[in-house]
Amino acid sequence: MNDSEIIQSVLNGKHHNFRILVEKYQQKVFSVAMGFVHEKEDAEDITQEILLNAWKSLKFFRGNSSFSTWLHRIAVNACLNHTRKNKGTVLTRFSSFFGYEGMRQVDIPLYEENPEEIIIKKEHSEWLQKALDSLSEKQHTAIVLSKYEDLSQREISEIMNITEGAVESLIQRARKNLREKLLSVSGKRKTA
Question: Is residue 148 assigned to a domain?
Protein backbone atom coordinates (compact mmCIF):
# COMPACT_ATOMS: atom_id res chain seq x y z
CA MET A 1 0.00 0.00 0.00
CA ASN A 2 1.19 3.51 -0.73
CA ASP A 3 0.90 6.36 1.78
CA SER A 4 -2.46 7.56 0.44
CA GLU A 5 -3.97 4.09 0.74
CA ILE A 6 -2.59 3.67 4.25
CA ILE A 7 -3.98 7.04 5.31
CA GLN A 8 -7.38 6.22 3.83
CA SER A 9 -7.44 2.87 5.65
CA VAL A 10 -6.57 4.62 8.95
CA LEU A 11 -9.30 7.19 8.40
CA ASN A 12 -11.72 4.34 7.63
CA GLY A 13 -11.10 2.79 11.03
CA LYS A 14 -8.04 0.57 10.56
CA HIS A 15 -6.08 2.60 13.10
CA HIS A 16 -3.37 -0.06 13.44
CA ASN A 17 -2.21 0.78 9.89
CA PHE A 18 -0.81 4.08 11.18
CA ARG A 19 2.04 1.95 12.52
CA ILE A 20 3.16 1.40 8.91
CA LEU A 21 3.61 5.16 8.49
CA VAL A 22 5.39 5.40 11.84
CA GLU A 23 7.83 2.66 10.87
CA LYS A 24 8.44 4.27 7.49
CA TYR A 25 9.00 7.85 8.71
CA GLN A 26 10.13 7.64 12.34
CA GLN A 27 13.86 7.72 11.55
CA LYS A 28 13.44 10.68 9.20
CA VAL A 29 11.52 12.62 11.84
CA PHE A 30 14.18 11.74 14.41
CA SER A 31 16.92 13.03 12.09
CA VAL A 32 15.13 16.35 11.69
CA ALA A 33 14.72 16.60 15.46
CA MET A 34 18.43 15.85 16.01
CA GLY A 35 19.27 18.64 13.60
CA PHE A 36 17.49 21.09 15.85
CA VAL A 37 17.96 19.85 19.42
CA HIS A 38 21.22 17.85 19.20
CA GLU A 39 20.30 15.70 22.19
CA LYS A 40 19.25 12.11 21.52
CA GLU A 41 16.79 11.98 24.41
CA ASP A 42 15.17 15.29 23.44
CA ALA A 43 15.01 14.24 19.79
CA GLU A 44 13.34 10.97 20.77
CA ASP A 45 10.75 12.84 22.86
CA ILE A 46 10.07 15.33 20.09
CA THR A 47 9.80 12.51 17.55
CA GLN A 48 7.11 10.85 19.64
CA GLU A 49 5.33 14.19 20.02
CA ILE A 50 5.48 14.80 16.25
CA LEU A 51 4.12 11.34 15.41
CA LEU A 52 1.35 11.75 17.96
CA ASN A 53 0.46 15.14 16.48
CA ALA A 54 0.43 13.59 13.01
CA TRP A 55 -1.90 10.85 14.27
CA LYS A 56 -4.27 13.39 15.83
CA SER A 57 -4.17 15.64 12.76
CA LEU A 58 -4.39 12.96 10.08
CA LYS A 59 -8.04 13.77 9.40
CA PHE A 60 -6.89 17.25 8.32
CA PHE A 61 -4.38 15.94 5.77
CA ARG A 62 -5.76 17.11 2.42
CA GLY A 63 -3.28 15.42 0.12
CA ASN A 64 -2.20 18.69 -1.53
CA SER A 65 1.36 17.57 -0.89
CA SER A 66 2.87 14.20 -0.13
CA PHE A 67 2.44 12.75 3.35
CA SER A 68 6.22 13.01 3.76
CA THR A 69 6.14 16.76 3.07
CA TRP A 70 3.21 17.25 5.44
CA LEU A 71 4.96 15.28 8.18
CA HIS A 72 8.20 17.22 7.67
CA ARG A 73 6.25 20.47 8.13
CA ILE A 74 4.87 19.19 11.42
CA ALA A 75 8.38 18.11 12.43
CA VAL A 76 10.01 21.43 11.57
CA ASN A 77 7.30 23.40 13.38
CA ALA A 78 7.56 21.21 16.49
CA CYS A 79 11.36 21.54 16.49
CA LEU A 80 11.23 25.30 16.04
CA ASN A 81 8.73 25.58 18.89
CA HIS A 82 10.94 23.43 21.11
CA THR A 83 14.00 25.50 20.20
CA ARG A 84 12.20 28.77 20.97
CA LYS A 85 11.04 27.46 24.36
CA ASN A 86 14.53 26.23 25.27
CA LYS A 87 16.59 29.07 23.79
CA GLY A 88 18.85 29.42 26.83
CA THR A 89 19.61 25.72 27.18
CA VAL A 90 23.29 24.87 26.96
CA LEU A 91 23.73 22.11 24.41
CA THR A 92 26.44 19.60 25.12
CA ARG A 93 26.67 17.32 22.14
CA PHE A 94 26.39 17.25 18.39
CA SER A 95 27.41 14.35 16.23
CA SER A 96 25.68 13.74 12.93
CA PHE A 97 27.22 16.72 11.17
CA PHE A 98 30.64 15.10 11.49
CA GLY A 99 29.36 11.64 10.61
CA TYR A 100 30.08 9.92 13.91
CA GLU A 101 27.18 8.88 16.08
CA GLY A 102 26.80 8.45 19.78
CA MET A 103 29.22 11.06 21.06
CA ARG A 104 28.57 11.34 24.77
CA GLN A 105 29.58 13.90 27.34
CA VAL A 106 32.29 11.51 28.51
CA ASP A 107 33.92 9.85 25.54
CA ILE A 108 35.69 6.54 25.82
CA PRO A 109 38.87 6.70 23.75
CA LEU A 110 39.02 4.41 20.77
CA TYR A 111 42.26 2.54 20.22
CA GLU A 112 43.13 4.50 17.09
CA GLU A 113 42.41 7.87 18.70
CA ASN A 114 44.51 9.53 21.30
CA PRO A 115 42.93 11.73 24.00
CA GLU A 116 43.96 14.93 22.22
CA GLU A 117 42.12 13.87 19.03
CA ILE A 118 39.00 13.10 21.06
CA ILE A 119 39.09 16.52 22.74
CA ILE A 120 39.60 18.24 19.39
CA LYS A 121 36.64 16.38 17.86
CA LYS A 122 34.47 17.32 20.81
CA GLU A 123 35.53 20.98 20.56
CA HIS A 124 34.79 21.00 16.82
CA SER A 125 31.44 19.41 17.49
CA GLU A 126 30.54 22.06 20.05
CA TRP A 127 31.69 24.89 17.77
CA LEU A 128 29.61 23.58 14.91
CA GLN A 129 26.60 23.11 17.15
CA LYS A 130 26.82 26.70 18.41
CA ALA A 131 27.35 28.03 14.90
CA LEU A 132 24.36 26.06 13.61
CA ASP A 133 22.18 27.26 16.47
CA SER A 134 23.15 30.87 15.77
CA LEU A 135 21.67 30.75 12.25
CA SER A 136 18.28 32.29 11.54
CA GLU A 137 15.38 29.85 11.83
CA LYS A 138 14.96 29.68 8.06
CA GLN A 139 18.66 29.08 7.41
CA HIS A 140 18.77 26.49 10.19
CA THR A 141 15.72 24.71 8.81
CA ALA A 142 17.03 24.70 5.24
CA ILE A 143 20.48 23.40 6.17
CA VAL A 144 19.07 20.71 8.49
CA LEU A 145 16.65 19.46 5.84
CA SER A 146 19.41 19.56 3.24
CA LYS A 147 22.22 17.95 5.25
CA TYR A 148 20.41 15.72 7.75
CA GLU A 149 17.59 14.57 5.55
CA ASP A 150 19.40 14.91 2.23
CA LEU A 151 16.25 16.39 0.73
CA SER A 152 16.26 18.10 -2.64
CA GLN A 153 15.73 21.84 -2.90
CA ARG A 154 12.32 21.10 -4.42
CA GLU A 155 11.29 19.01 -1.39
CA ILE A 156 12.62 21.63 1.02
CA SER A 157 10.73 24.37 -0.84
CA GLU A 158 7.50 22.39 -0.41
CA ILE A 159 8.13 21.82 3.29
CA MET A 160 9.10 25.43 3.98
CA ASN A 161 6.49 26.79 1.54
CA ILE A 162 9.04 28.96 -0.30
CA THR A 163 10.55 28.90 -3.79
CA GLU A 164 13.44 26.64 -4.76
CA GLY A 165 15.51 29.76 -5.39
CA ALA A 166 14.84 30.94 -1.85
CA VAL A 167 15.92 27.52 -0.54
CA GLU A 168 19.15 27.68 -2.53
CA SER A 169 19.81 31.17 -1.20
CA LEU A 170 19.12 30.11 2.40
CA ILE A 171 21.46 27.12 2.11
CA GLN A 172 24.22 29.23 0.56
CA ARG A 173 23.88 31.91 3.25
CA ALA A 174 23.79 29.26 5.97
CA ARG A 175 26.99 27.66 4.65
CA LYS A 176 28.68 31.06 4.40
CA ASN A 177 27.60 32.00 7.93
CA LEU A 178 28.70 28.63 9.31
CA ARG A 179 32.06 28.92 7.59
CA GLU A 180 32.60 32.46 8.93
CA LYS A 181 31.59 31.52 12.46
CA LEU A 182 33.76 28.42 12.49
CA LEU A 183 36.75 30.28 11.03
CA SER A 184 36.26 32.99 13.64
CA VAL A 185 36.24 30.44 16.45
CA SER A 186 39.21 28.53 15.11
CA GLY A 187 41.14 31.81 14.70
CA LYS A 188 40.44 32.70 18.33
CA ARG A 189 41.60 29.24 19.40
CA LYS A 190 44.91 29.61 17.57
CA THR A 191 45.64 32.98 19.17
CA ALA A 192 44.79 31.72 22.66
Answer: no
CA distances from 65 to 21, 83, 160 (A): 16, 26, 12
Q: N- to C-terminal Cα distance for the chain?
A: 59
Mean pLDDT for all residues in the chain? 81
Tens of pLDDT, residue by residue over 7-19, are 999 999 999 999 9
The CATH number for 11's domain is 1.10.1740.10
Percent of the chain with pLDDT over 70: 76
Structural domain that includes position 1:
1-89
Identify the pLDDT of residue 63: 87
64 assigned to some structural domain = yes
- Which residues neighbour 189 within 8 Å (Cβ) at sequence distance 6 or greater? 123
Total number of domains constituting the chain = 1
Note every long-range contact of 161-167, with CB atoms under 8 Å and residues 24 or more positions apart, other chains counting: 161/73, 162/138, 167/142
Is 174 buried (19+), middle (13-18) or exposed (0-12) by CB count in 10 A? buried
> Is pLDDT above 60 for 150?
yes
